[in-house]
Structures are given as C-alpha cells and as structure tokens.
Amino acid sequence: MDKKLLRMIAGIELIAIFSIWQIFSSFSWFPTYLSSPLAIVKSMGELWAAGDLVNHIGSSLFRSLMGFLLVVIVGVTLGILAGYYRRVGTFFNPIVNTLNPIPKIALLPILMVWFGISDTTRILIIFLTAFFPCFVATRDGVHSVKQVFLWSGQNMGANAFQLLTKIVFPVTLPKIFDGLRVSLGLTFVMMFSSEIIGAANGFGLGFLILNADLGGRTDYMFAGVAFIGLLGFIFDKLLLMIRSRVLWWDVNKA
Amino acid sequence: MFKRIWNKVLDYQSIFILLILWEVIAALGIMPERLFPSMFVVFGVAYDLALSPLLWDNLSVTMVRVLSGFTISAVIGVPIGIMMSRFNLMNQLMQPMLSIGYPIPRVALYPILVFMLGIGSGSKIFLIVLECLFPIIINTYYGALRVNHIYLWASQNMGANHYKMFWRVLLPATAPAIFTGLRIALPLALIISILTEMISSTEGMGYLLSFMSSSLVQVNVLATVLLIAIVGYLMSIILDVIQKKFVFWH
Predict the structure, then answer these.
(1) What is the radius of gyration, based on Cα positions, of chain A?
(2) What ipTM score was computed for the predicted complex, to two decimals?
(3) B93 touches chain A (CB under 8 A)
(4) How far apart are the C-alpha atoms of A194 and A186, rounded to whole Å?
(5) Closest CA to A191 of A205, A208, A212
(6) Do B15 and A94 touch (CB under 8 A)?
(7) Taking 50 as the threshold, does the pLDDT of residue A254 lie above it?
(8) B118, B126 in Cβ contact below 8 A?
(9) Do A42 and A213 touch, CB atoms closer than 8 A?
(10) Helices in A36-162 by DSSP H: which ranges?
(11) Which residue does chain A place closest to B131, by CA atoms?
(12) Which chain B residues are Cβ-neighbours of A101 within 8 angstroms?
C-alpha cells in the first residue's frame, strides 16, 4: 500500500482526535481530570524545564534497556542452541512450555523480598517477561531452516560452527527480529509496572506518574504517559530501522 | 510401564533438576529459611489455600475480569481484522492506528483509566481489551490476507454467495491465524488483570498476592504464585483443547 497516503491518513486521524479532545475540554464538556492536549504539552514542557525529567527518563531507560540487552544476549543464544542441538532443546522445552503462559509479574513480590526494591529486581522481572517470546521465536526460527541449506553447507565442507554462524543464524534472523519486537514492547510494559508497584522513591517515569496520581495532577500524569508512549514508539521504530539495515536482503519487510 | 514413566521423567528432566536444585539450596540454608522455604512446604500451603474460600473468592473475580476482557477483545478484534483484509477503506483507516498504537505501552494509561472508570472491574477490563485487541487484530488481518485466492475464486465459481463464502471458506481458512492471536492475547489478559489488581484493588488474585506479600510470610507468597502459575497453565491447556476442536486439520 502507498506509504505516503497512510502517513497522511494517520496525521489526519491524530489531529482529528486531539482537536476533538481539545474542543471538548475547552468548552468543559469533559470532566476536568481529562485535562486537554494543550495543557499536557504545557506540563510536558514544565517537566522538561524542571530538570528532573532527564533523570526519570534515564533511569527508566537504563532498566528497560539493560533488561532488553539481557534478553537479546541470553534469549537469542539459548534459542539458537535449543533449536540446533536436540539435547539442549529437550532440556529447555519443558521449562519454557510450562513457564511461558504463567504471568511473570506475580514473581515481583518474591523478587522484591530476595533482591530488595532495587534495579536488580526490576531488570530481572523485565528479563523474565521478555525472555520467552524471544526464545520461542528464535527456536522456531531455527526449526524452520530448510534442510537443503544445511545439506548444501555440509556438502561444501562447512563444519558445525560454520553451519551455525553462516547458515542457521542469518536464516533465523528475521524470526529473531519478530521475537525481539514483541520482547521490546513487553520490556516497556514491565518497566512501567515494576516502577509503579515498588515504593515510589527514586527516579523513573512510573514514579513520576504515580506521584502525579497521588497529587491529583492529571496533566502531569498524562505527560508521563505521553513520555512513556513516545519512548516505546521511538525504540520500536529504532528496532525496525536496525532490522531493515541488517536484513536488507529480506523480502517481506515488517 | 516403568520404562514409560522413566521416559516421561527424562522428557521433563529440567523441571525435576530445577526442583532438586531448589531443595538443595533450601536444605543447605544458603538463604534464610523464611525467605527461601522448601518446595514441599510451599506445596502444602498452596493445598491449604486451594481449599479455603480466600482463593476461590479472589480467583472468581480475576477470572471474570480476564474472560470478559478477553471475550470482548476477541469479539471486536476478529471482525475488525477480517474487515481490514477485505475492505480497502477499513484497512486505510485502521492501519495508521495500529502502527501508532502497537508500540506504545498501553498499561501506562491505567492510572488515567482509574480516574475515568473507577477502581473496580471497569478500568481493568478496559485495559485488558486495549492490550489484547492489538495481537488479535494483527494476527487475524495477516491470516486473512494470506488466505489463498484460489479458494475464494473456486467458491465463487461454484456459486457461493458472500454469506457462504465468509462462513465456509474465509473464516475456516483464517482460523489458525486467529488462534495464534488468541494464544498471545490470553496470557496477556491474565498478566494485565493481576498487574492492575496489584496496583490498586480490593479483590482478585493480584490483590491476594500483594496482601500476602505485605504480611511478609514468604511461604504464602510463593504458594499464591504457584496457584497463579497453575491457573495460567490450565488456561493455556484449555485454549489448546478448544483449538484442537475447531482447527482439527491444522
């Protein structure tokens, strides 16, 4: 489909929604707690000017990106090994199949007692949640590598390591990126939830929203939500950019 | 017989290894016993909890939220996904919304939803719908797009009207993809329900969990987590059974 047309429609839709919101709240047809887009933009500016925002965003990003990095390293490595070596696969599959449908957020109180209300707990819970989609996607990706590729590689004298790095990994890469995209979304979800459930001190966008909530400042709340949304959006687009850079040969782009 | 049991044990060796490791750590006393109780104690407490009304009252509240949110998002999401694949206008209207809304962590809206819909089930169900809608719509859309055109042409050729084509060809052909979406959405619904109940609630499994953890008895917390895990696992098994029944050819 035409990309330009889609962008235009998206712009029109967004402008329509925001202007309806603005009109309704400036005639005070909405209750005041719903704020208004202009007020939210204003309080976003205020937060930015107050100076704490960089710390909030910084520590939130540190947590989510550390968790995501762990997922990328551990999830992709284990996924490829579990898909490639049958023994590793049979070892990990039962764990993954049983733990995958379980809501990992339930582990948060336990981790809090073991590791304290610290960044370790938050990064761990982010890792635990985001690990499974990445692992499953990578493993299934390795399984979907065509046997012909492996045979021809072997035929041309590639050893096991070369097969893994030269054939299995590149062929799996599109699937890995699909899994990573889901993981990245979950990362931000868990970042917010771990910050809002733990006690509200220190820095983080979740704390910002929680404090605004306690103070009844809905415009600051909306501003915090807007910042989290922006971060999620930007990092998703970044991942897609990296994907299209790395996977320039992939035909069906996301 | 013995051999079959042994094979089953071998299949699930990793889980047994984890359990044994846990027991060894608990027995050696590396962590204080209050923080790291033996699994058998946890099983016992979980069993007691499963017999008490405390669990069933909270579990029923959570299940009502999860299932109603999940059902609403399935009922809205599947038709939207199929309509997007069939009607260009619908696709052009929805596609930008999806690409903007998908990467945004929608959980962050929860405090605002509490303001709008109150602290009860309304805000929680709404958030569950918001989270579950996207995977269902996206999977249904791509599944319906990939339906082989030959099937549609063949059915038209044999004189099927729109109604028949939808129910007999398009929907069954999309069903595997729909179930993929539902499979992603169902655990999400449970996660969101428990998460929102942990943030603010007076009933539900998430509330039970935070209630237990604020009493600082780690055995109870672990038992609650175990029960939640069992519920999550059972839900995925039930979805498996339903899928096998409806998509038996896949």
Answers:
(1) 22
(2) 0.81
(3) yes
(4) 12
(5) A205
(6) yes
(7) no
(8) no
(9) no
(10) 37-50, 52-70, 76-84, 86-99, 108-115, 119-143, 147-155, 160-162
(11) A189
(12) 186-187, 232-233, 235-236
